[in-house]
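Exercise 7. Given the encoded structure of a 201-residue chain, write a plausible sequence.
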């Protein structure tokens, strides 16, 4: 077992224990203010293209019927859900995905089925590692929902501009990987800093 996986196991256990009171509070708030299930589960593409169920706190209305691209301010996101998403609290249940090996703390964000089929050549490297809770591309596009809200066609902009650039950044992350780089990305994520590296060039 390599150092990245050992770190993921230890840190996810720690995270689940420390955030347990927050989990309980969020779960109660969702039950009270957003009738329906507390958790949102969705198929995502993991390592080697294997599908897994990613778990998040639900931030949208039940049976909203929307697409897979989230835009800030859209009506399917509830007021409580907007706050959870703003502070990334909806991501906390992914600690479980990390613990059981579906995900890592750092890596490309896991895509919904369909996007992985578009990967060609070196871009297929994205499927050789576990997807992450955060990553180099996530840091660059931490304001992704706000950026998409400015577009006349958010889905087209995501498919033609954001997704290709995120793939490029994540491929560079894989090629330059080090344990110290993972720690730096985690710290920058926690403190809201931008990763000023060659990944954005």
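Solution.
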């Amino acid at each position: 077992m390599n150092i990245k996986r050992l770190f993921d196991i230890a840190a996810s256990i720690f995270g689940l224990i420390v955030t347990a009171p927050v989990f309980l509070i969020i779960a109660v708030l969702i039950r009270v203010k957003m009738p329906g299930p507390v958790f949102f589960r969705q198929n995502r593409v993991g390592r080697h293209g294997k599908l897994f169920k990613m778990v998040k706190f639900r931030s949208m209305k039940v049976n909203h019927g929307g697409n897979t691209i989230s835009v800030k301010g859209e009506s399917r996101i509830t007021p409580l859900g907007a706050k959870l998403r703003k502070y990334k609290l909806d991501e906390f249940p992914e600690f479980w995905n990390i613990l059981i090996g579906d995900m890592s703390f750092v890596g490309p964000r896991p895509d919904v089925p369909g996007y992985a089929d578009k990967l060609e050549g070196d871009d297929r490297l994205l499927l050789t590692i576990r997807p992450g809770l955060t990553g180099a591309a996530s840091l660059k596009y931490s304001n992704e929902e706000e950026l998409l809200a400015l577009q006349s066609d958010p889905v087209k902009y995501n498919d033609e501009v954001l997704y290709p650039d995120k793939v490029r950044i994540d491929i560079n992350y894989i090629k330059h990987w080090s344990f110290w780089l993972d720690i730096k990305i985690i710290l920058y994520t926690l403190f809201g800093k931008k990763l000023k590296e060659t990944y954005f060039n």
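Remark. The mean pLDDT is 89. Students should compare their own answers with the one above.
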